[in-house]
Amino acid sequence: MNFKKSFGEKIKRTRKKRGLTQEQLAELIDISPRNLSKIEVGDCFVKAETLEKILNALNVSTEELFANDHIKEPEELLNLIYSILDDIKNDNKKLEKIYKITKFLAYED
Predict the structure, then answer these.
(1) pLDDT tens, position by position, 29-71
(2) 22-29 and 33-41 helices cross at what angle (nearest 10)?
(3) Calpha distance 18→33 (Å, rounded)
(4) What residue spans of 1-109 are helical by DSSP H?
(5) Under a CB-based contact definition with an 8 Å cutoff, are residues 44 and 4 in contact?
(6) pTM confidence score
(7) Which of 28, 31, 57, 73 has the smallest number of CB atoms closer than 10 Å to its CB?
């Protein structure tokens, strides 16, 4: 995964933890929701002044946002999985793929 995408996902996770929609955060940091969406999916990176606004709006430190948090506790991993599943709960094809992958991983030797 490239850095922009990983960083964007961290912003999205943090935004959701704070209970904010993209529209709400975009308004707080004075950019369009479309631009915030591009940041969150890794299509573009933030300018320094936008980064500062994001840190303030999400009440998070630079260290927290840039930390290598690839090692997560089981409870956090489950919450992230549930969040993903909730996002795609109406997409039967994706759910079937996730089911097959999960079943394979759970029962492999």
Answers:
(1) 999 999 999 999 999 999 999 999 999 999 999 888 887 655 5
(2) 110
(3) 17
(4) 3-17, 22-29, 33-41, 48-58, 62-66, 74-87, 92-107
(5) yes
(6) 0.61
(7) 73
